[in-house]
Amino acid sequence: TQHEKIIRGIALGLALVQYGQEENADAVIEEMRADRDPILRYGAQYALALAYCGTGSNRAVRILLHTAVSDVSDDVRMAAVIALAFVLYETPERVPQLVKLLLESFNPH
Asked: Where does the UniProt annotation place the signal sequence (predicted)?
């Protein structure tokens, strides 16, 4: 719907503003992550990705992995996995182990 498109645009706009902010973005990210609306939780994954882009932050990776396996929305889980790539692009050697963890937790049912 038009309303959902507006919410998605705002959520992604908030995510873009968080670029490079690291801990300064945590309050906004947590508020978005806790929202009932999956579109805002989707935006939270990108906000986390951009706030910690290239840092390899263990905390960000832990949050994204948890979301990737536990959120009820397919879109939010997908965004969390994509966000992992943003956070880890400077440390590609960590990716195979994380993919292995995701595969082990995958449940198609």
From this structure: none
Contact assessment for residue 106 and residue 68, using Cβ atoms and an 8 Å cutoff = no
Structural domain that includes position 39: 2-105
Q: How many domains does the chain have?
A: 1
Average pLDDT of the residues in 82-96: 93
pTM for this entry: 0.90
92 Cβ partners below 8 Å, 6+ apart?
none
For the stretch 75-85, pLDDT in tens is: 999 999 999 99
Query: b/e per residue, 66-105, with b = 16+ CB within 10 A?
Result: ebbbebeeeebbebbbebbebbbeeeeeeeeebeeebeee
